[in-house]
Amino acid sequence: MLKRQKTFWIFIYLALVVMGLFNLLPFYWMLSSSFKTEGEVSSYPATLFPQVWTLGAYSKIWFQEKFVYYFINSLIVSMTTATFSSLVGAFAAYGFSRFRFKGKTLTMTLFLASQMIPGVLLVGPYFKMLSLVGLYNTLLGLILSQITITLPFSIWMLKGYMDTVPVEIDQAAMVDGASRTRTFLMVVLPGILPGLVATIIFAFLLSWGDLLWALCLINAKAKQTLTLGITQLVGEFRTEWSTIMAATMIATMVPAVLYLLLQNFLIKGFTESAVKG
User: Fold this and answer.
1) How far is residue 197's CA from residue 269's CA, in Å, rounded to a whole number?
2) Please, what sign has the CA dihedral across residues 148, 153, 154, 160?
3) % of the chain with per-residue pLDDT over 70
4) 66-276 belongs to CATH 3.40.50.970
5) 19 — pLDDT class (breaks 50, 70, 90)
6) Nearest to 121 by CA among 210, 212, 207
7) pTM, whole model, 2 decimals?
8) CB 63 within 8 Å of CB 246
9) What is the spatial distance between Cα 125 and Cα 216, in angstroms, rounded to a whole number?
10) Which of 9, 39, 127, 149 is deepest in the core (most CB within 10 A)?
11) Which is more confident, 41 or 265?
12) 3-state SS of the chain?
């Protein structure tokens, strides 16, 4: 019996090692290639470690290619989308969690159904509508289009967290003289803070990694996002892979740093939703 258990755990650890290598090797290759010269990246056979370490790709992508503007555009779009959809989603989730009204179940079902529609089917109608109101090729138009994707997701997530907060807490606060809005802001919202942070992170990541909407709704180079800017690095006759890897590393570091800073809230939010849900 002990031998079987030992064999089982050896198999589990080997499987975890294989999965870890499968996920980390592409990231290591991207990191390693970003520090290589263009000639070394294209050389054969490939080198596992850079023979000559250089920051030339990062310098070129940040200053020569003007990626700083793409980076700022992505931050503006992602932070605005995540903040607006999470805050509005919190108010909407509170209403769905605390009040009874006609069409409540149908509305929530429609929110859920909207997440099942492929984004590529919505690009055409959004392109037409934004063009009619003069918001095509603007960051505001891109933000509004992405909010329509992240807002239903935020409402569904936050409603689940709202349901874990007892209604008696609301009633006790209002008995003490607090208004409904003050009760929500001062009592309920702090109680679901881990869930709110988790929702903000997911909405931010959905917006940060978007390419389809930016590709179809943004045309001016000065308003391009980071993901769209990376695609412009693939040339018709030549592709500078070290520069692409450096740009991808820059784009990857923002979600990584965001997760490291907020991982305690994120883990706590997942744990609470798993236990109470």
Assistant:
1) 8
2) positive
3) 92
4) no
5) very high
6) 212
7) 0.83
8) no
9) 11
10) 149
11) 41
12) CHHHHHHHHHHHHHHHHHHHHHHHHHHHHHHHHHCCCHHHHCCCCCCCCCCCCCCHHHHHHHHHCCHHHHHHHHHHHHHHHHHHHHHHHHHHHHHHHHCCCCCHHHHHHHHHHHCCCCHHHHHHHHHHHHHHCCCCCCHHHHHHHHHHHHHHHHHHHHHHHHHCCCHHHHHHHHHCCCCHHHHHHHHHHHHCHHHHHHHHHHHHHHHHCCCHHHHHHCCCHHHCCHHHHHHCCECCCCECHHHHHHHHHHHHHHHHHHHHHHHHHHHHHHHHHHHHC
Summarised one tens digit per residue, pLDDT across range 48-88 is: 888 888 888 888 888 766 788 899 999 999 999 999 999 99
Task: Report yes or no: 71 and 226 within 8 Å, Cβ to Cβ.
Answer: yes
* Cβ pair 238, 255 in contact under 8 A: no
Structure tokens at 32: 């390693």
**CA-CA distance, 93 to 97, in Å (whole number)?**
6
Q: How far apart are CA 37 and CA 242, in angstroms?
A: 7
Domain ranges, ordered by start, for the chain: 66-276
Q: What is the residue type of 182?
A: R
In sequence order, the β-bridge partners of residue 234 are 239
Mean pLDDT score, 213-222: 88
The residue type found at 118 is P
**Residues near 201 by Cβ (< 8 Å), separated by ≥ 6?**
82, 258, 259, 262, 266
Structure tokens, 39: 């000639």
Using CA atoms, how far residue 116 sits from 4, 25, 229, in Å, is 44, 32, 28
> What are 23-56's pLDDT values in tens digits?
888 889 889 988 988 888 888 787 888 888 888 8
